[in-house]
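Dear H.,

Thanks for agreeing to be a second pair of eyes. The structure we're designing against is below in token form, covering all 519 positions.
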């Protein structure tokens, strides 16, 4: 077979493939938009929205209005041509085709100022959301996330006007350039932030609220359809305002995820997620426990006593310091029809199981209990009994000034550390004393201070004291630590050498009296 005959045979097979294809492939009547011209429209729109960054030196030669008008005219001409082509395969009447094209392009042109305003909010969100961003100028010049958002906002306007082909050509061009796939049909609110961005997928029926952050690898997708295009309606998730979705997360299906800010439960940026369709709350760490039951759901609890211990211990360790925030968090969800709670740790909590109980317990544990008397404990360690003598003298001075106060001394070597830490954190004020050994306070005192609730103990009044034989570093070291915890340290503390004399004990009693009067 000659080369010419070979070419003829292959061409005939290719032509037959055109005729038998399920979509039009070759026809004098078939007209398609030009991808190169569509990309040119994107580039010109980028120059219109961010002229100083992408228009080169042309911006310095004419007024801003003249510059914008010239480019807009070019964009309008190109867009009319491409929209006309996109509609031409479905609208056969030429007058209707021209009217539809003109209406779509006029609407698009009128919407550009609103798109510009939205993009500037996106710039602010990308700058504010990324500590590594040197400036907003850097964001505009170099951030792939902002570029993908820009192309999406343009393509979405054409999608809303039901323009065939062009919106998807635009979004897939951005996808190829950035690795970020945002379907033009998605509905995305203001101040949208994409960090890094590679691998992000946002499906067609996704709804995203305001002030939402997405990190790399996030998928807001649909469940795999069994019947292809027979699947209609809401296929992708709804994400509420102020949500942050971190890298690698996949959220599939047409469910709604409403974000409820819940700061300090137990991180400053903690939040709850509520899915109303499933009546399910995802409260991050709240209501959790470091405990693994043989079964997933709480109504099948095999070891209820052990679970209860773990449940209370988790609350004490994680949420005990944040009781006012717990009450606030409970108030935010009290009107939700919650049927199950999926915590980050522990069994799934259900309505038929422990749900009402755990919410009630959290509220009881977090509600302040009024104190009938002021609580002023004195914690100390004493190597030879000298620091203990000082503690008792200070106690007597406090009791003399505040006879109604609950003021007791506690030798840390004779009490459980956990009980002492709880007492310190609940006290209105306290005193702490240590002898000096190895130029420092002794270990039990440091262990007690390691359990201080630093959040709720700020400005708590404290008095420091101790005896010493040589250099006496315990009192200044403890004072420095307590100042670092932002507590209200009374004076410079009291240091007494060796065995306290009667005069020393009188001075300690007087210091206790003065401390009590300062409260």
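And this is the sequence the design step returned. I haven't edited it by hand at all.
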């Amino acid at each position: 077979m000659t080369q010419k005959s070979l070419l003829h045979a292959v061409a005939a097979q290719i032509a037959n493939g055109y005729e038998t294809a399920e979509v039009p492939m070759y026809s004098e009547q078939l007209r398609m938009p030009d991808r190169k011209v569509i990309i040119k429209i994107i580039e010109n729109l980028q120059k219109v929205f961010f002229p100083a960054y992408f228009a080169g030196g042309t911006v310095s030669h004419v007024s801003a209005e003249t510059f914008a008008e010239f480019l807009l005219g070019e964009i309008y001409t190109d867009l009319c041509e491409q929209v006309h082509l996109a509609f031409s395969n479905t609208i056969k009447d030429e007058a209707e085709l021209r009217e539809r094209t003109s209406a779509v392009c006029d609407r698009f042109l009128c919407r550009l100022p609103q798109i510009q305003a939205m993009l500037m909010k996106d710039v602010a969100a990308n700058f504010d959301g990324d500590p590594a961003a040197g400036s907003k100028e850097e964001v505009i010049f170099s951030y792939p996330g902002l570029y993908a958002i820009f192309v999406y906002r343009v393509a979405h306007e054409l999608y809303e006007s039901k323009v065939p082909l062009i919106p998807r050509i635009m979004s897939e061009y951005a996808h190829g350039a950035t690795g970020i796939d945002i379907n033009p049909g998605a509905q995305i609110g203001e101040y949208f932030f994409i960090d890094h961005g590679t691998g992000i997928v946002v499906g067609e029926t996704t709804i995203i609220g305001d002030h939402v952050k997405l990190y790399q690898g996030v998928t807001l997708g649909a469940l795999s359809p069994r019947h292809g295009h027979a699947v209609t309606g809401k296929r992708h998730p709804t994400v509420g305002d102020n949500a942050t979705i971190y890298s690698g997360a996949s959220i599939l299906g047409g469910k709604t995820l409403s974000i409820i800010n819940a700061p300090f439960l137990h991180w400053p940026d903690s939040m709850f997620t509520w899915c109303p369709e499933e009546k399910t709350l995802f409260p991050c760490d709240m209501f959790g426990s470091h405990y693994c039951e043989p079964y997933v759901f709480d109504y099948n609890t095999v070891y209820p006593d052990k679970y209860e211990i773990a449940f209370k211990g988790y609350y004490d360790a994680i949420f005990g310091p944040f009781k006012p925030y717990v009450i606030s968090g409970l108030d935010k969800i009290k009107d939700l029809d919650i049927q199950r709670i999926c915590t980050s740790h522990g069994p799934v909590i259900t309505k038929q199981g422990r749900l009402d109980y755990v919410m009630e317990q959290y509220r009881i544990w977090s509600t302040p209990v009024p104190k009938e008397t002021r609580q002023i404990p004195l914690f100390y360690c004493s190597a030879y009994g000298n620091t203990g003598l000082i503690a008792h003298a200070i106690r007597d001075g406090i009791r003399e000034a505040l006879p109604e106060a609950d003021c007791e001394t506690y030798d840390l070597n004779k009490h459980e550390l956990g009980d002492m830490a709880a007492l310190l954190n609940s006290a209105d004020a306290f005193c702490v004393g240590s002898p000096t050994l190895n130029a420092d306070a002794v270990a039990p005192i440091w262990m007690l201070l390691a359990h201080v609730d630093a959040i709720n103990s700020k400005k708590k009044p404290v008095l420091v004291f101790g005896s010493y034989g040589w250099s006496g570093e315990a009192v200044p070291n403890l004072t420095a630590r307590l100042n670092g915890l932002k507590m209200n340290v009374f004076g410079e503390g009291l240091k007494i050498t060796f065995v306290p004399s009667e005069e020393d004990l009188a001075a300690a009693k007087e210091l206790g009296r003065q401390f009590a009067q300062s409260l």
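Two observations from my side: The longest strand covers residues 461-468. The longest helix spans residues 94-129.

Warmly,
E.
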